[in-house]
Amino acid sequence: DQYTAEHCLNVGILAIAVGRHLGLEEKALEVLGLCGMLHDVGKMQIDQDILNKPGRLTEEEFAVIKTHCEIGKGVLEEDPDLPKETIEAAWGHHERIDGGGYPRGTKANKLNLYTRIISIVDTYDAITTNRCYDNSRPATEAIKILFSCRDSQFDGWLVEEFIACLGIYPTGSLVELRTGEAAVVIDSNRTSRLFPKVSIVLDEHKRTRQPLVVDTRNYQEQPDGRTIRSVLDENEYKIDLEYVFSHFRQ
């Protein structure tokens, strides 16, 4: 399944970024990335018609979806060379701090650090990625959801560290500048979180323009300068992020 494959890749990469932010050693980062890559492996044995259903799931269908945790655990246990942390991540990434998750209803604070990180990153990527039954939502909205669920669904301090890792305006976010132009966030300024580097991709009339990389920090003293006014919904604009970032690398 293409979405699940890309989702697992995203979760693995982003989990490593969070681990680096937390200061984990290289071996731990390798294990963490593997946990992200394999956390949904059980979905390989789920009915694809249910997995890719565009509408709301019935209770019976959701019960089938939930079995992917137990299935994933079983699949990974067959490989004696896999780190045990990957098994717990596949089994426990839908558990909650308050014990209201599945499949066991275990309080997530009893699970290891890897699984608790994967739980947060998994949810973030699911919210910010287009799926068969829901459009993606802005990264800032995903952050608000995670923050509102800290200490109930997710480990509170890890949520705060995750947000600190991403920044106020995560890389890839589409924002509107005070000039009316639209830009993609391409890099954060660690000392000025509110003023990231951006690539302007739409002019003040929201027409496509040649990407222009600017550091919004240079305009923070200008009331109508190129600083961020608001976050835009990426679904309303057709932005080729691969092109934007390739231009930035040049």
Mean pLDDT: 91
Oligomer: single chain
Strand content: 5-15%
| Spatial order of strands in the largest sheet | 4-3-2-1-5
Uncertain regions: pLDDT < 50 for 5+ in a row? Answer: none
Shape: globular
Total of helices = 10
What share of residues is helical?
A: 40-55%
Separation, N- and C-terminal Cα atoms = 33 Å
Q: In this structure, how is the largest beta sheet organized? A: 5 strands, antiparallel
Could you characterize what this model shows?
Helices cover 44% and strands 11% of the residues. The protein is of the alpha+beta class. A five-stranded antiparallel sheet has the order 4-3-2-1-5, covered by helices on one side. It is globular.
Topology at a glance:
Elements: H1 2-22, H2 26-38, H3 48-51, H4 59-66, H5 68-77, H6 84-92, H7 113-128, H8 139-148, H9 156-166, E1 174-177, E2 182-187, E3 197-202, E4 208-215, E5 228-231, H10 241-249
Antiparallel strand pairs: 1-2, 1-5, 2-3, 3-4
Short description:
The chain contains 10 helices and 5 strands, in the order H-H-H-H-H-H-H-H-H-E-E-E-E-E-H.
Throw out a few tags for this protein.
single chain, 250 residues, alpha+beta, five-stranded antiparallel beta sheet, globular
